[in-house]
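Re: [ENG-882] Designed sequences occasionally contain unexpected residues at chain ends

Forwarding the minimal case from QA. Structure tokens:
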């Protein structure tokens, strides 16, 4: 009987030892260390612990956001060994995925609660803050004029492109196959002088002497109309001021297609002597495309004295000229144009079964007018745009343009109008999304608060993150305030956004939030 007991005891001991070594090898035993639950294998510096940390750091480079957030949390639980590995990676900068992975590493480092995190975070956010400030100062130094809204500039570029395409078609019709390279240059998305120059030089005889610009200047006086057009466009792109007098002469005396190209070239040359002649063409030329190209040129010259002439063109006999004039007024931002622009919108609406002005019913005219009001801003423009946004009888594309325009204004009233539209679940989804995108363009702290509320939304969370990052400095204080949340996932999202923005003010609040 004692022999049986001895065998049972031996078997029990073997089983116990087997379980113990199994647990030890798998690294499943944990001990309390430095306020974190830390793997004993990692603490011992074993290869399996280091491998686990290395594997988690690699997962920070995954495409899936959830995977990266989970990896950061797991690294946080591993404490000091993970912090040391993260700091080494951050300081060596050997990251295949660049800044985004670095941001997740900083989040993971915060989660380790390691005392070294503050210095590392201060260095990282301090560098970003200095870099961002330098970029802003550099941009401000280069910006000598009022900056126009991006969507207005894109709309003007579209007009400019359409005018070049029209010129290309007209030249082909008049000169048949002699203008292939010139047509290619006019239709090019990116404008530069080389295509125009190569066309002109290829048409000149070998006997022509002088430098490239000297030959182009001579070509402005060629008997060939398409050579004059090509030379004007080339010299305009080169910003060759010596060409101004000859191109001004083309504007007033040449045939229509050459005058059209002369107006476009004068806008590129930037010589203020062209303002008066361009205003006369805008006022008096019988060709709508020359009136349009003169308007665009005056916009490029930032000619404030042209505002009355442009407001007059809001009643032009051609809708395309009205549209172009509206966009240029929006680019200039002159408040005196607000009332005439609102009149365009009102006169195109149906009242008592009729419209006062049918040309103002066209979508292009109305969209351009809406964008122009957004470029100018002010309470009167904001109210007019809010009315357009909420008008179920208005064209969808015009209402979408109104969301963008309100985003450009970015005042508290504009923000409230956009928030109201977004929160209205009965509103067209395209308009709601447009309102969300427009809110993202504002630099208003109220909009920042709105986006922070949406971070946990499965449909709009990604858009909210992007909007807050793009908002930058105005979003920092609202984000810091919301670090106090008890929701760990939202806190991690906010921390990542603050790290991405890189404002040094966030360092202490981030350290405090993760104690």
């Amino acid at each position: 009987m004692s022999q049986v007991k001895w065998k049972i005891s031996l078997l029990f001991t073997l089983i116990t030892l087997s379980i113990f070594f199994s647990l030890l090898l798998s690294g499943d035993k944990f001990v309390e260390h430095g306020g974190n639950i830390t793997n004993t294998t990692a603490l011992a510096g074993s290869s399996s612990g280091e491998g686990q940390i290395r594997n988690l750091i690699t997962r920070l480079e995954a495409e899936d956001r959830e995977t990266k957030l989970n990896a950061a949390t797991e690294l946080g639980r591993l404490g000091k060994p993970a912090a040391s590995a993260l700091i080494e990676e951050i300081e060596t900068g050997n990251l295949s995925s660049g800044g985004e992975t670095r941001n997740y590493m900083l989040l993971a480092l915060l989660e380790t609660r390691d005392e070294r995190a503050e210095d590392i975070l201060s260095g990282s956010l301090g560098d970003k803050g200095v870099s961002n400030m330098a970029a802003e100062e550099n941009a401000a130094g280069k910006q000598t004029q009022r900056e126009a809204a991006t969507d207005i500039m894109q709309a003007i570029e579209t007009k400019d492109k359409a005018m070049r395409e029209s010129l290309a078609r007209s030249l082909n019709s008049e000169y048949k196959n002699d203008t292939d390279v010139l047509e290619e240059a006019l239709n090019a998305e990116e404008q530069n002088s080389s295509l125009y120059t190569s066309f002109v030089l290829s048409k000149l005889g070998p006997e022509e002497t002088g430098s490239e610009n000297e030959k182009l200047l001579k070509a402005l006086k060629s008997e060939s109309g398409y050579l004059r057009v090509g030379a004007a466009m080339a010299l305009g792109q080169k910003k060759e001021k010596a060409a101004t007098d000859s191109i001004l002469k083309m504007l007033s005396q040449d045939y229509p297609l050459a005058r059209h190209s002369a107006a476009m070239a004068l806008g590129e040359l930037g010589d203020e002597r062209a303002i008066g002649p361009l205003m006369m063409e805008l006022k008096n030329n019988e060709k709508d495309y020359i009136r349009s190209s003169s308007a665009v040129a005056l916009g490029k010259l930032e000619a404030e004295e042209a505002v009355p002439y442009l407001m007059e063109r809001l009643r032009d006999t051609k809708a395309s000229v009205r549209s172009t004039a509206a966009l240029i007024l929006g680019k200039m931002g002159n408040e005196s144009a607000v009332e005439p622009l609102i009149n365009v919108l009102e006169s195109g609406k149906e009242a008592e079964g009729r419209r006062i002005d049918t040309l103002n019913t066209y979508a292009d005219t109305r969209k351009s007018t809406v964008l122009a009001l957004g470029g100018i801003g002010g309470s009167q423009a904001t109210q007019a745009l809010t009315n357009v946004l909420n008008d179920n009888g208005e064209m969808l594309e015009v209402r979408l343009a109104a969301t963008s325009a309100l985003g450009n204004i970015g005042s508290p009233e504009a923000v409230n109008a956009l928030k109201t539209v977004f929160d209205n679940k009965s509103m067209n989804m395209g308009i709601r999304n447009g309102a969300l995108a427009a809110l993202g363009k504002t630099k208003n702290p109220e909009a920042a608060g709105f986006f922070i509320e949406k971070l946990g939304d499965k449909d709009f969370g990604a858009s909210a993150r992007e909007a807050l990052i793009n908002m930058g400095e105005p979003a920092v204080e609202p984000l810091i305030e919301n670090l106090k949340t008890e929701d760990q996932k939202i806190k991690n999202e906010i921390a990542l956004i603050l790290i991405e923005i890189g404002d040094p003010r966030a360092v202490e609040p981030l350290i405090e939030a993760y104690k």
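QA comment: On inspection the terminal residues look reasonable. The mean pLDDT is 87. Proposing we downgrade this to a documentation issue.
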